[in-house]
Amino acid sequence: MKDKTALSDEERWRIALAKDRRFDGVFVTGVHSTGIYCRPSCSARRPKRENVRFYANCEAAEAAGLRACKRCAPDQQSREEAAVLAALELLREAEETVSLDRLGQLTDYSPTHFQRIFTRAVGLSPAAYQRALRRERAERALDEGGSVTDAIYTGGYGAPSRFYEGRKDSGMSASDWKVGGKGRTVHWAVIDTTLGAMLVAATDKGVCCLSFNEGEEALRRRFPKAELVEAGEGFRDLFDKVLAAVEDPTSVTSAAIPLDVKGTAFQQACWDALRQIPPGETRSYGEQAAMLGNPKASRAVGSANGANNIAVLIPCHRVIAADGGLGGYAYGTEIKAELLRRERGG
After folding, report:
1. Could you say which of 38, 72, 208, 270 is catalytic?
2. Is residue 270 among the annotated active site residues?
3. Is the pTM of this model over 0.70?
4. Residue 47 phi/psi, 5° resolution?
C-alpha cells in the first residue's frame, strides 16, 4: 500500500490544488500570508505557492505560529472520518466480503447511515469498493501470467460465476482479456470529420477504438486476434453519436455512449479518472495521479493515458503539461486544442 506520509512538497502542492480529501489527516497546508493552516481539501481560495508551507500535523503548524482554518477545521477529525478510515483498513485486509452490518458494528453507526457516510467520502458504496478490490486483485493475477482460475481465487471470489458476473460491464470476458480479444468481432468504419479521418470500431458491447488519421491496419495492430468486419447499418446509430461527440461535444453526453474497454486495473482507474474531468476543463498528470490517491504516479498515469484506444470518449486530451501548456497528444496538438475549444463552447 502507498505510504501517504512519504510525499514531497511538490506532491503535497498538487494534492492541495486537486483538493483531494483522501489526504486529509496526512498533512496540513500552512498559508503564511494569512497565518492559517488547512486540510488539503479545504475549499478556500488557492493561495500563492510562495506563501505555502506544509506540516506533518496540526501541532507542527501551530508551533510555527499558525492557527486552524475555521472553514475546514483541520484540528478536528470528525467521528465520521475516523469511521471511514477504520472501515477502509478492514476492507483492504479482509479476505472475505465484509457485510454492511459488520461495518455498522465496527463504526457504531446504523448500516444505512454508514453506507451514506462511506459513499460520500470514498465515491463508492462499501459493496462497490469491495468489488473493485476483488477485481483489481484478480486482474493483477492475470497480468502476472496466472490462469483465470488462479485469478478467481486470488481475487477472493467465492465462485467462478461471481467473477464473470463482476466483469460484465468491462465487455471483454476474462479469457478474451487475457488473449487479446480472440474470438471477438470488431465492427469498424473510417468517417470523415472536420478534424480529419476518424477510425471508429465497436463490439456488440460498445465502442472499443476511436482514433484519427488511421485505418484498418492500425486497428489490426490493436486487436490482432479479433475478427475485423466493416460496420453495417446495425452500427449506424452508435457511430452517429460518436461523430456528434467529436463535432459538437455540447450536443451529446459522451458518458451515454457505451464502451468496451480492455485494460489493466490501473489503466481502468486512470481512464475512469479522465472521464470525471468536466468537459472543457484540464488537469496535469500530477493532478490526475492525485485523483487516484498516488501523486507520485504521474509517469505511470502518462503511460496509462497513452494506452487509451478510445480518444475523445475517454478524454486524455483534457490532460496538459504541469506548466499549463498543451503537452503532447497522440493525434497532434492542433486536434487537442480544437477538442478543448469545442468543449468550452468556443
Report:
1. 38
2. no
3. no
4. -80, 170
